[in-house]
Specification:
Structural class: alpha+beta
CATH architecture of the largest domain: 3-Layer(aba) Sandwich
CATH class of the largest domain: Alpha Beta
Number of helices: 13
Strand order of the largest sheet: 5-6-1-7-8
CATH topology of the largest domain: MutS, DNA mismatch repair protein, domain I
Shape: globular
Distance between the termini: 39 Å
Number of strands: 14
């Protein structure tokens, strides 16, 4: 039986800002875009969450909910530096680390460098070191699989630790609202509610055949987690299938030249990531969202690999010409590359795409 820890930093970006600027402590802080434009909330402090603000919300709505909130632009270079500190703390305990983002990771401590048989004690050590070395707090979930560890880490946030033992799992899952199940999004939650599935106990009453009929291939996952079954291992070396950057524009653009300027910056960022990964790509995809929210993609695959920003931008310009951009105003632009010459393992949080560029 595995011993899994899920570490999740508390309001990470906002906590870093409050740490570095004492004037922000105890105040509603929103890290993200401009509330006067189309900015999005990356994260917010717990003081801001009391007003109903949450990540992925528009910054404009966040401002309406809390006009006294302090809006701060993200400082990703600082967050990345802290993430490196976190990774070193994790590595001092185990090599089996699966980062999910800059501030979140699974750790398999079944066998560990501390020679400690208690996963709970290891989680306590990690959380204390994080606070001592970064001045930040983290919450942790401890259990025998990834699903339970992740859900458990959210139970006593912020700055909490929750252990779910094997003999406690059935009761713990039965009481969980389905919205707390990792992998159940808003649409699935609504469908489950229509079927009378509100909690883990309700989910447990449905057969495999019924769940497969209602939810397709995901039905097997729901059937298993309702019974506390999750055989997924902690995978320290995942393989990236694509690298991408996209930008939601402050104002709708109708000038193709301005669009190419934005795509040029994205091409430079992607070229840098390809260089860091020591690889090249064969496929480029352009994403365009018009002012009316219609979204389309255009792609091109080349026999010869490419990695230079100038080449990426040249292909992007050709793809942009195959859209109605210019005839229609654009509110979002994005580029991504795939089909790499050499696999890029995701072994460091810094290689994961930032959710709010």
């Amino acid at each position: 039986m595995r011993k899994i820890i899920h570490i999740d930093m508390d309001a990470f970006f906002a906590a870093v800002e409050q740490r570095d600027n004492p004037e922000l402590r105890g105040r509603p802080v929103v890290v993200g875009g401009d509330p006067g434009g189309r900015g999005v909330v990356a994260t917010c402090s717990y003081e801001a969450r009391e007003f109903g603000i949450h990540s992925a919300m528009s910054a404009a709505r966040a401002y309406r909910l809390c006009p006294q909130a302090i809006f701060v632009r993200p400082r990703f270079e600082v967050y990345c530096a802290v993430s490196r500190q976190l990774r070193q703390i994790f590595l001092d305990c185990t090599e089996l680390i699966e980062p999910l983002s800059l501030d979140e990771a699974y750790l398999d401590v079944t066998e560990n460098k501390l020679n400690n048989s208690s996963a709970t004690r290891i989680a306590q050590i990690i959380r204390q070191r994080i606070f001592n070395e970064t001045g930040l707090t983290a919450s942790a979930g401890v259990s025998y699989n990834k699903f339970l560890a992740k859900v458990a880490s959210d139970v006593n946030k912020p700055n909490g630790l929750t252990l779910v033992r094997p003999e406690q799992a059935a009761e713990f899952i039965a009481a969980l609202p389905v919205r707390r199940f990792h992998g159940v999004g808003r649409v699935t939650e609504q469908k489950m509610k229509r079927l009378g599935i509100l909690t883990g106990a309700d989910l447990l009453e449905h057969s495999f055949e019924d769940l497969h009929r209602q939810f397709g291939s995901s039905g097997q996952y729901y059937y298993q987690i309702a019974r506390g079954i999750d055989e997924r291992p902690v995978v320290p070396n995942r393989i990236r299938k694509s690298i991408g950057k996209e930008s939601t524009l402050v104002e709708d653009l109708a000038d193709p030249a301005q669009m190419l300027t934005i795509l040029g910056r994205q091409a430079e960022q992607i070229a840098l990531l390809l260089k860091q990964g020591e690889t090249a790509a064969h496929c480029l995809t352009l994403k365009v969202r018009y002012a009316d929210f219609q979204t389309l993609t255009r792609g091109r695959t080349l026999a010869a690999p490419f990695c230079q920003a100038t080449v990426i931008l040249g292909i992007a310009e050709e793809l942009l010409a195959k859209t109605d951009a210019g005839q229609q105003s654009v509110r979002l632009l994005g580029l991504s590359v795939s089909q790499f010459d050499q696999e890029i393992p995701v072994i460091d949080p810094l290689q994961l795409e930032l959710p709010f560029p």
